[in-house]
Batch of 4 targets.
Target 1
Amino acid sequence: MKKVGITQRQLPVTSTGEVRFALDERWSHVLWAYGILAVPLPNVPSLALSTAKELHLDGIILSGGGDLANYGGDCPNRDETERLLLSWAIEAKMPLLGVCRGMELIADTMGCSLVRTEGHVGAVNSIEGPLMTGSVTCYHDWAVNDLSASLVGLAWAGTVLEALATPDGRVLGVMWHPEREWPNNPSATELVRHHFGAA
């Protein structure tokens, strides 16, 4: 079984000073269905990377939820963790999937800018492109403004970019949530199995 590390949201600090991480349980279900064991990673850069290396992970998922710190988000340590994992995955030639916020982080790290967009929060959008043609429900209010030379576009909803990748395809980003589309929208979730070469 493939082992794929997945990053997590960071919840507000509790009254007792606890810092808690969270992950939609649907990720465990959809990954298990595709023959992948989900390995949650903490928003602690060195620990997340050490865990990934020690467990010899087969891939990384940068999960969704929240904004990047330089676009108003409140979790810079998550950004730092995910940028480190992205760099490691590229160096190791390992598949990495960025979901929603994760795609935004890929784009931002690789020289793109983001702009506010409307009509993509809780909205069903028609997607077209070489990665996928069909409908997905989106939950984002940021969009990639321009593509750097290190990325290629793979799907659009009108003029809004909804998927991108590095030219070799190892780093893939999508603006919809496969875990929320599973199991009712296979065309929006099968990319997870294909990307990680799972059963």
Target 2
Amino acid sequence: MAVNRVDVTADAADLLRRLAGRHGPLMFHQSGGCCDGSAPMCYPAGEFRTGNADVHLGDLRVDGVGEPIAVWMSAAQFEYWRHTHLTIDVVPGRGSGFSLEAPEGVRFLIRSRLLTEQELVELGEYVRPR
């Protein structure tokens, strides 16, 4: 089984099904700060332009959503987060006006944990302690 860097909670998957029904294919970009804090921002696929300064963390496959949902992060932020597994969740509250969930009265957020040594090995990122 392949190691995934990203996952989604059941509550977030429910919201993604509704958003995909309204907006079509979706994508996430993990914001690096500034006015949005550090939040996973949900957009219609392709609306946020990614490039060489971004890392594709993986794709979320959500039952009931036809297209995989790509998850991206800036390369600079990835250097700090490369050792973590990220789970996209949703909580009540006001998020960014730019992310698709804003009108719903909820916001996406990231829950993280350290990747295990085995996961790091499988990702080719394990560095043996000295």
Target 3
Amino acid sequence: MKPFSTEPVTLIEEVFPQDTNSYNTLFGGRLLSVMDKAAGIACSKFAHREFVTISIDTLTFKAPARQGDLIEVTGRVVFTSTHTAGVKVTACAMTKSDWETRVICEGYFFMVAIDSMMRPIPIPQLDPETDDDKKEWAIAEEIRNNMLSKRKSEQEN
């Protein structure tokens, strides 16, 4: 089974007053919500399946976005296992005064494909081709292996 699309997904939203804190910067949870949405859409586009989030890892907030900025969030499937897709999501903020773009947050979202009964189902497998693709695969695979190792350790205790 081959992927339906390996193209990234990009969402763009404006930061409105209700999205900000008392410093007029974007709430982290609001940004996380948009990033999660981009990850889910990227997975659905990749596999033509429904997905739910099972893990978010190495999420790094690098800079704030301010009220009035545009947020551009891009998700790209970088790893797959039998039922799971790993998506690297990058969020950038753009000011409308000069359209300068800066990365404000990055992270890896792991999503599992589900059927109508919420059971995991198989997905197409990604075949990393370029050196960059292979590097991202290795990063995501290490994150997933650490997650599984931690889960196993918690179950044993």
Target 4
Amino acid sequence: MTPPPRSPRTRRPAGRSVAIAIILSLVIPGLGHVYIGRMARAVIWFLGAVAIGVILDQQAGITPGALIVLTVLGVCASIDALVMLKFFRTGDSR
């Protein structure tokens, strides 16, 4: 018997490094998504980071608390890029 075909959800886009996607998302939320070809998610993450940054800057300026919030956002964007790269094809609309 031949093994069942691999599920299309488990194929990684060819030539895309997990480490690079994570680092790019940590630097600028959404940039890792651009790297793996997820443009809609990239725009959402980037605009979310900009919106949160603007709100935090208007409230009290860039404080250590604001930097922590933006760092957590970058980590969350990195995790999302990792999940997208590991478990979904580039052509999916998710």
